[in-house]
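User: Some background: our group keeps a shared notebook of sequences we're curious about, and every so often someone picks one and asks for a predicted structure to add to the entry. Today it's my turn. The entry only has the sequence so far, pasted here. Could you supply the structure so I can complete it?
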Amino acid sequence: MYEIRKIIVPVDFQQYTDEIAEFATATANKLAAKVVFLHVVETVIFYSDFVPAYMPVKDEETIAHAERKMAELVEKNSKTWMGCSGKVKSGDVVDSIVDYAREEGADLIIIGTHGAKGLEKILLGSVAERVVKRAGCAALLYKPQK
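Assistant: Of course. Here's the predicted structure to add to the notebook entry:
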């Protein structure tokens, strides 16, 4: 039987982060699994005549802010499930999530989807969709209640 012992939960600290975290910790509680919340800091600089594919982040203030937000998220969710921790990384979002899950031996990735449509999806793509396609473990898409 496939056992789920470690769950990676990418978070963006946006509108539905708390809902995704609650779902992930409730799932982990039922499976007696550990949860690692993962936030990836990525900065893209846009010029009027050029859009780069990726620019690495070196801004210590941005990373420090993300680490404070992560500490708050972990503290809040540790009250309901002690088996959670957090990690902040910098780099390409999809690559970082997939690589981290592989490095950590994750059994499951629970990733939220915002349901982008139309031009937004064409221009930005879906991080969740790309993670699911590239993940080396099981992945579950979570669509927050609106």
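Suggested note for the entry: Strands lie at 6-10, 34-41, 84-90, 108-112, 138-142. The first strand starts at residue 6 and ends at 10.
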